[in-house]
Amino acid sequence: MGGEGLTLCRASFIKIEFNYKSSISISKWVEIIIMGYIDLHLHTTASDGVLSPSEVVRYAKAKGLQAIAITDHDTIEGLEEGLSEGQRIGFEVIPGIEISAEHSPGSMHILGYFLDIHHPFLNERLGYLQKARAERNPKIVQKLNQLGIDINFDEVLKASGGGQVGRPHFANVLLEKKVVKSFQEAFDRFLKKGATAYVDKFRFTSKEALHFINEAKGVAVLAHPKTLGVNGYSELEKLILQLVEEGLKGIEAYYPEHSSSEVAQFKTLADRYGLLMTGGTDYHGMEKNGLDIGVGRGEMKLPYSIVENLKAVRSRSLLGG
Ligand code: AMP
Ligand code: ZN
Ligand code: FE
Ligand code: FE
User: Fold this and answer.
1) What's the 97 CA to ligand 3 centre distance in angstroms?
2) Inter-residue contact 90 to 70 (CB < 8 Å)
C-alpha cells in the first residue's frame, strides 16, 4: 500500500469512528481495508429503485465494494438478472428481499438473505403479494380521479419502468403532472397512510414472513428497527423477543438514519438474543434521497465479516442447529 492510500484509509477510519463510535473498532477498520466493504440493503427497478439490477451490480463493483445484497420490496424479480451480472463480472451478489409485514403504528420490514429463489413456497407467497398489489393499485388511481386528478394506470405503469408498481411511482407521476411540487408532497397529501388516496394492501404477519423466508433457506433480519415506531427500549425488546421466537436471525443495526446511541442499543439487543448485526444504506438511487451505495451519506462502510457471519448462520440453520 502506498503512502497516499494509507492517508485515505486513515481519513476514512476517523470518519467511521465519528459515526459509529461505540461499534466500529480498529479491528473492524483493518477488516474493511483487507476484506473490503459491503452493502446489504439495495433497491433496483424491480421495485422502486432507479438502477436496474445489472446496473446496481456494476455500480457497486465500480465503487469498490466487495459484495452487495439486492433487497427489493416484496419481490425477487430482479435477482436472476443481478446474480447473473455478478457472475459475469466477478462480483458477489447475495439474493435478498425486503418484506413489509403487518405492524402498527410504524412499519415493519423484514430482510431475507441467501434465499433459494426457486423455492416453490417462497414464490407462491410472493405471488400472493403481487396479486394484492395488483388489486390495490387501480384503487389508488380511482381515488385520485375522485379527487379530480387526471391520472390513469398506464401512466403509472410507464413510470415503474416495467418492474413492480408501487406508491413511489404514483408520486413520480403526480410530480411530473405538477399536481404536487415534490415527491414528498405526493405522499403527504395523497399516498401515505391516512392520506386522501391511500389504499391499504395485504401484508403478511411477521410470523408468516419469517416462516417463508426460513423455508426458502434465507436468513431473516429486521430492517431499520427505528421505523417500527415502538415506545422505548422495553417495548422494542419485547417485540424483538417475539420475532426471535418466530425465526428472526439478525437486526439491521447499521443504517443511515441510526445514531450511534441507537446502534449501541441494537447491539445490546443483538448480544442478548444472539442476533447478527447487519447493515445497509437502503440505496434507491442517489437522486431519490441523496444516499449512495456502500457509504450512505458519508462513510458508512461496513466490513465483509458481516457477510461471513450471515453465511455461518445460514449453514448452521441448514444443518438444523
Ligand atoms: P408500496 O410498497 O407501493 O406501498 O410503497 C412503499 C414505498 O413507498 C416505501 O418503500 C417507500 O419508498 C415509500 N413510502 C412509503 N411511505 C412514505 C412516506 N410517508 N413518504 C415517502 N415515501 C414513502
Ligand atoms: Zn423503497
Ligand atoms: Fe424498508
Ligand atoms: Fe428498503
Assistant:
1) 10
2) no
Closest CA to 252 of 310, 180, 183: 310
Q: Does the beta carbon of 167 sit less than 6 angstroms from any atom of ligand 1?
A: yes
Model pTM greater than 0.70? yes
Cα-to-centroid distance, 173 and ligand 4 (Å):
21
pLDDT greater than 70 at residue 18:
no
Calculate the CA 225 to chain-centre distance. 12
Q: Which atom of ligand 1 sits closest to the CA of residue 167?
A: 3
Task: Quote the ligand 3 centre to 224 CA distance (angstroms).
Answer: 7
CA-closest residue to ligand 1 atom 15? 192
pLDDT of residue 288: 83
Q: Three-class SS of residue 229?
A: coil
What digits encode the pLDDT tens for the residues 275-315?
999 999 999 999 888 999 999 998 789 999 999 999 999 99
CA 66 to chain centre: 18
